[in-house]
Amino acid sequence: MSDEHGTIESHPLQGETYPPSPEFRDRANVNDPSVYLRAAEDPEAYWASEAEKLQWTKPFEEILDWSNPPFAKWFQDGELNVSANCLDRHVAAGLGDRVAIHFEGEPGDTRTITYAELTSEVKRAANMLTSLGVSAGDRVAIYMPMIPEAVIAMLAVARLGAAHSVVFGGFSAESLRARIDDARAELVITADGGYRKGRVSALKPTVDDALALHGGGSSVERVLVVKRTGNEIEMQAGRDLWWHDEIVTYDDQHQAQGFPAENPLFILYTSGTTGKPKGILHTSAGYLTQVSTTHRNVFDLKPDTDVYWCTADIGWITGHSYVVYGPLANGATQVIYEGTPETPDWGRWWSIIQKYGVTIFYTAPTAIRACMKVGRQVPEQYDLSSIRVLGSVGEPINPEAWRWYREVIGAGSAPIVDTWWQTETGAIMISALPGLTSLKPGSAQVPQPGIDVNVVDDAGNRVDRGQGGLLTIRRPWPSMVRTIWGDDQRFIDTYWAKFGDQYFAGDGARVDDDGDIWLLGRVDDVMNVSGHRLSTAEIESALVEHHAVAEAAVVGADDETTGQAVVAFVILKSQQTILTPEAAEQELKKHVAAQIGAIARPRQVFVVTELPKTRSGKIMRRLLKDAAEGKDIGDTTTLADTSVMQTISDRMRAEL
Ligand code: WT7
């Protein structure tokens, strides 16, 4: 498949590489290739020297404790305050007047916040949270739109040594409640709503619904509400407080205290292969070290001149590491935009780049492909000449989108860093360094200095160049997941059981003849839709919770824009009368969105009478995926019932 805009299936050209320009290389933060060797020879010394760039209230002496694998401790006898490293440190260095955040609301309202102002606001918020009873070791849930208060809330929680659990604002009441319960959060910080696609998207009512579920009785005692959209909401006396009413009563004096390096910083839930999301736990100093180092190196950040913009929402790991902690630890000036790229029209992102003179732009392939579809005539109306580095994250970037990104957004010259990492890795693990690497469209290329990534066979042995295998990480790294919140055993089983001494990422990969790494997608039952991770099992269990559904199978089918799309196959209960097969598709799409969140809404729901199963009763998702992609279904002789796939496949082809 190929047309003038290109499709996700485009292939790299033989030998297509883009070396850094001599000018870029000369000025790059990292332009001496010996860094790889130095870091490989003594990774701990390398990470210790990076950690020393942070401000410690008590310096560390021990670098890594790996005496009880897979539970790593980095810099554990040291102490620091994460929030002070992102704020007070810069103000003390005389950078208080530097802009930290250029905020652009979707309706067009703007706010410019300097480091001095952000520091004051976070101190005020920390005082407010203290008087609401938040202290070190607590968990605070944050369910917010992309507004400055979301960042302020995260930094205020961190400042007190408590852990935040940010829940993406698109998640349903059920999903929010499950996360609140798992973390036993006592405070929720939310907003009345946010602006999305030109409309108010309410948030507080979802918090109310979440807390009322299961007969109420949650761990939550207080709800703090930021006023953003002014929509009518209910405030429950004794529980709910307005952020603006409270915060004005506190002053902006707050002395940050140092906390142990391994103090929990946040929990972030992500989908796994079972129905229950995993609470990925990240701790303080190692995390902050690796996010700041990678942010500086991979994006070649020059904090006094660059204007950086990462389009991710703080509800995802990219927002945590490359909107909040990495950029702020580095004293960067950044843009935060509340809304969607097509509001009021598809020129919105490019107008923001032009307006603020954005120099470093970091987004996802799905967004680039959506912009490609609309056409280059839109970005061509804007002055994008400030751009000097482009980044990509979330899924492999297909070469055609890569070339378009470089040509149309990067004036044919900006380096593109394709960054591979995960919620669990906390920070970028594989990426080009723009002053050193000759870029290859479609490949994430090289492990970062000090990172021990391998592509291995089933026995855990490294494959030869030119071969494919599974992606693993051998040595512990500073920003690695410490455990799954409340479930050490699941942490071991999910990531370490397969190889014992290597972290198994769940991705397939290939190493080319130059040693560059090409990611090939997940090898487990995890889908990647628009760069977001979704679990087939979670959506299947949401479907069977519907009264009319007897059985469900979900697959991630290739999709031109979103990478993969959710396609569901359901069998309706034979005796049920509430749903006709005709009404089922719409109803079940709505049901999944309500149960999990709009991101999980299936692209298609097919009512079938049988699902393809092996003789031992396992659903053959591979076959369903092929059928959903209109592919030849091939050999079905291992199926219990060989006719079922023919029927499904014929139906699918009729639809496509
Ligand atoms: C999964 C992690 C890291 C933030 C965004 C997603 C896929 C991520 C790339 C890339 C190929 C990628 C992997 C990974 N992925 N970045 N540059 N090239 N694949 O975080 O939700 O934790 O998902 O996203 O499959 O395992 P996440």
Automatic annotation (TrEMBL):
<dbReference type="GO" id="GO:0046872">
    <property type="term" value="F:metal ion binding"/>
</dbReference>
<protein>
    <recommendedName>
        <fullName>Acetyl-coenzyme A synthetase</fullName>
        <ecNumber>6.2.1.1</ecNumber>
    </recommendedName>
</protein>
<keyword id="KW-0479">Metal-binding</keyword>
<feature type="modified residue" description="N6-acetyllysine">
    <location>
        <position position="618"/>
    </location>
</feature>
<comment type="similarity">
    <text>Belongs to the ATP-dependent AMP-binding enzyme family.</text>
</comment>
<dbReference type="GO" id="GO:0005829">
    <property type="term" value="C:cytosol"/>
</dbReference>
<comment type="function">
    <text>Catalyzes the conversion of acetate into acetyl-CoA (AcCoA), an essential intermediate at the junction of anabolic and catabolic pathways. AcsA undergoes a two-step reaction. In the first half reaction, AcsA combines acetate with ATP to form acetyl-adenylate (AcAMP) intermediate. In the second half reaction, it can then transfer the acetyl group from AcAMP to the sulfhydryl group of CoA, forming the product AcCoA.</text>
</comment>
<dbReference type="InterPro" id="IPR020845">
    <property type="entry name" value="AMP-binding_CS"/>
</dbReference>
<dbReference type="InterPro" id="IPR025110">
    <property type="entry name" value="AMP-bd_C"/>
</dbReference>
<dbReference type="InterPro" id="IPR042099">
    <property type="entry name" value="ANL_N_sf"/>
</dbReference>
<dbReference type="GO" id="GO:0019427">
    <property type="term" value="P:acetyl-CoA biosynthetic process from acetate"/>
</dbReference>
<dbReference type="Pfam" id="PF16177">
    <property type="entry name" value="ACAS_N"/>
</dbReference>
<feature type="domain" description="AMP-binding enzyme C-terminal">
    <location>
        <begin position="538"/>
        <end position="618"/>
    </location>
</feature>
<keyword id="KW-0460">Magnesium</keyword>
<keyword id="KW-0007">Acetylation</keyword>
<dbReference type="InterPro" id="IPR045851">
    <property type="entry name" value="AMP-bd_C_sf"/>
</dbReference>
<feature type="binding site">
    <location>
        <position position="522"/>
    </location>
    <ligand>
        <name>ATP</name>
    </ligand>
</feature>
<feature type="binding site">
    <location>
        <position position="533"/>
    </location>
    <ligand>
        <name>ATP</name>
    </ligand>
</feature>
<dbReference type="Pfam" id="PF00501">
    <property type="entry name" value="AMP-binding"/>
</dbReference>
<feature type="binding site">
    <location>
        <begin position="418"/>
        <end position="423"/>
    </location>
    <ligand>
        <name>ATP</name>
    </ligand>
</feature>
<dbReference type="Pfam" id="PF13193">
    <property type="entry name" value="AMP-binding_C"/>
</dbReference>
<dbReference type="GO" id="GO:0003987">
    <property type="term" value="F:acetate-CoA ligase activity"/>
</dbReference>
<feature type="region of interest" description="Disordered">
    <location>
        <begin position="1"/>
        <end position="27"/>
    </location>
</feature>
<feature type="binding site">
    <location>
        <begin position="394"/>
        <end position="396"/>
    </location>
    <ligand>
        <name>ATP</name>
    </ligand>
</feature>
<keyword id="KW-0547">Nucleotide-binding</keyword>
<feature type="domain" description="Acetyl-coenzyme A synthetase N-terminal">
    <location>
        <begin position="35"/>
        <end position="86"/>
    </location>
</feature>
<dbReference type="GO" id="GO:0016208">
    <property type="term" value="F:AMP binding"/>
</dbReference>
<feature type="binding site">
    <location>
        <position position="318"/>
    </location>
    <ligand>
        <name>CoA</name>
    </ligand>
</feature>
<dbReference type="InterPro" id="IPR000873">
    <property type="entry name" value="AMP-dep_synth/lig_dom"/>
</dbReference>
<feature type="binding site">
    <location>
        <position position="530"/>
    </location>
    <ligand>
        <name>CoA</name>
    </ligand>
</feature>
<feature type="binding site">
    <location>
        <position position="544"/>
    </location>
    <ligand>
        <name>Mg(2+)</name>
    </ligand>
</feature>
<dbReference type="InterPro" id="IPR011904">
    <property type="entry name" value="Ac_CoA_lig"/>
</dbReference>
<feature type="domain" description="AMP-dependent synthetase/ligase">
    <location>
        <begin position="90"/>
        <end position="477"/>
    </location>
</feature>
<feature type="binding site">
    <location>
        <position position="549"/>
    </location>
    <ligand>
        <name>Mg(2+)</name>
    </ligand>
</feature>
<keyword id="KW-0436">Ligase</keyword>
<keyword id="KW-0067">ATP-binding</keyword>
<feature type="binding site">
    <location>
        <position position="507"/>
    </location>
    <ligand>
        <name>ATP</name>
    </ligand>
</feature>
<feature type="binding site">
    <location>
        <position position="546"/>
    </location>
    <ligand>
        <name>Mg(2+)</name>
    </ligand>
</feature>
<dbReference type="InterPro" id="IPR032387">
    <property type="entry name" value="ACAS_N"/>
</dbReference>
<feature type="binding site">
    <location>
        <begin position="196"/>
        <end position="199"/>
    </location>
    <ligand>
        <name>CoA</name>
    </ligand>
</feature>
<dbReference type="GO" id="GO:0005524">
    <property type="term" value="F:ATP binding"/>
</dbReference>
